[in-house]
Amino acid sequence: MSGIDSFLSTSLKELIGGKSAASLEKAFGITRAGELLNHYPRRYIDRGRLTTFSNVEVGVPVTIMATIHSVETRRMTQKRGFILVVKVTDGLDFIELTFFNQKWREKDLKVGRSGLFAGTVSEYRGVRTLTHPKFALFADIGLDISQETDAITNFTGEIISVYPSSQDLASWQIQAAIDVVLTSANELMDPIPAELVAKHGFMTKLESLHAIHQPKDHDEIVRATQRIKYEEAFILLALMRQRKSQAKAAIAHARNGSDGVVLSEFDNSLPFELTQGQREVGKEIAQDLARSIPMTRLLQGDVGSGKTIVSIRAMLDVISSGGQVALLAPTEVLAVQHLESLQRFLKGVTSRTIRVDLLTGAMPVATRRQVLLNAQSGDLDILVGTHALLEEKVHFFDLGLIVIDEQHRFGVEQRAVMLTKGKGELRPHLLVMTATPIPRTVALTIFGDLDVSTLTESPSLRAEVQTHLVSTSGMPRSVLRVWERMAEEVAAGNKVFVVCPTISRSEVDPKKVKTSQVKTPQPEPLASVEETYESLTRQFPHIEFAMLHGGLDSHNKQEIMHRFGGLEGPNIDVLIATTVIEVGVDIPEATMMVVLNAERFGMSQLHQLRGRIGRGSLPGLCILVHGFSYSSASTDRLSAMRDSRDGFILSQKDLEIRGEGDVLGQDQSGALSSLRLLKIIDDLDFIETVRIEIEELYEGNSWDSVLQAIDSFEIARAQNLEKA
Ligand code: ADP
Ligand code: MG
């Protein structure tokens, strides 16, 4: 049996004709039968029960079921011709349909008739209007197809499915296409093994598709939804399980850390005690490294939880056993900082020299060439770098471990590229780190192909940090107070970060431009690094300010960070920066942070930013200055930030406020892109059950048939990803 269910991969052109297929492709990128059948209804309308207009939003495409209340023809005032104004009602409220010079529609649009009307609602003087809507009217039995539609639909059911639709494609046209496809479908291959279908009492796959698209009653919808969710979870978790076992099937060089002398030298040289979590995770990692099965581990821990130390200890195990390490960081600032902290920490190791080098895109050619040579000949132990490490010409003598910091900035493919840089056929061990911790159960699903370790304490963030919200709208006085507070902090000998959303003044707020159809007050300009610098320099001539942003060259950036960190050169008191400082920057003397236009930043971004202060022994102060905020979500976000400093709590909140699609959106494995009905957060308990069943199947002897069955879905998913 081929793994591909041939019906589901049939091209829609063949099934429903070129014209309809073309509009589906244009609107949704849907080209195959299976994809169309996965385009599930957004909601259902009970025939005979009108949809309420109260939640009809202006500016968004809608489909409503309504009854015609009145029809009127008016002569246009400016031009020749007529406007046909049709008032439709949900029984309480009214929406107007307008047609220009289409007087002939009067004969269809009779008072008292009901139907579906689709279009984008606009509002003029308090009247909601659909201009030239698509419509399909109900006849006494079934549905009249207006001349607008080109497909024949049968609307005999009691429940009408309403689909996510587009400007060109009305819900009922999608329904008609689905009807054709469903009618030609025979039996479909089921990715869920028969014994599990029986155990859970599920419908067959084909039955579930009929039921979700053309339900006879509400009970069918519930049962179909359950089965489809289960199927989504099943495929996702089975693929993850398979990916994991593939990764583990490769062979790695076992690195047992030799006699452990180097590691104990290092531990003894640390100015602090390792936390219990650091010890435990360290042990897990050491055990992984000592095996010839490649480690593929995610280390998640809040900002300041001390992941770097944990990773250095892993590096030392590998280096003492003769391997090299690559440390990948998303930005140059962070890569340089890693290099420097490695050099600092590794001073404690005296029994051997550990050679650390840096590779970034911005380095002079000669230096770069030397570093590449060192990596290849084995003349360096640790290579720290940015995306430059991924390049083909980067070779190692014997790469034993890859550490990826802030892994969410890298894709799965990039991980895969690094994994090919091992010696011969050997696969390096992999440790990826993230400071955007998500609940463990969520991590196990999204990162199902990795083992997960979690650090829960943040030893470096013992100092208290207070967070205050300050509004700029109409309260210039409170902002002045913020700058006075900054001056006091500097006078006390501390360092201050000021974060702005943009570099220069000319930049317009892109988000406001996008939503400009919706009425918002005149956009306020966004705070920029350059303007803030100019204005603060003028107001506080005795304070040393500097700017840091992505537009500066790397030499400049490095010099500024050194001066701000008190390492060398003339002192800097206040660093005015963009989010380049968001990741990893570690300046213990920094005690205060002011974020301007804080409403423009996401929660994990704000959390990361705030993690830059309170790192030393002194308490910190974080002031989130926000302008007019136009969504309750941004208000909720800022209040959550004020109330908690725990990354786990904040990510949970973020998931609640924004929904998982946005939070986990660009998840590393592309796992979410194939989910339609399953919600990782809401369905966690359920996912847990499926995970156990998958594990049993994996341990049993029918895993091969599971693989065969999900094969086609993997292929379909890959096709989807390519298109996206
Ligand atoms: P993150 O997990 O955010 O990457 P880092 O590894 O950068 O955190 O650690 C943040 C700070 O905490 C560093 O200055 C580091 O030296 C310090 N640190 C790490 N472990 C401990 C510990 N056990 N006790 C005290 N400070 C620690
Ligand atoms: Mg870090």
What's the overall geometry? globular
Q: Gap between N and C termini, in Å?
A: 29 Å
> Given the helix and strand composition, which structural class is it?
alpha/beta
Percent helix range: 25-40%
CATH superfamily of the largest domain: P-loop containing nucleotide triphosphate hydrolases
CATH topology of the largest domain: Rossmann fold
CATH architecture of the largest domain: 3-Layer(aba) Sandwich
Spatial sequence of strands, sheet with the most strands: 12-13-11-14-15-10-16
- The total strand number stands at 22
Radius of gyration from the alpha-carbon trace, in angstroms: 30 Å
Largest sheet features:
7 strands, parallel
Low-confidence segments, given as residue ranges, are 140-154, 512-521
Query: At the first level of CATH, what is the class of the largest domain?
Result: Alpha Beta
Strand content: 15-25%
Number of domains: 3
Name every ligand kind in the structure. Answer: adenosine-5'-diphosphate, magnesium ion
Mean pLDDT: 85
Question: What's the number of helices?
Answer: 24
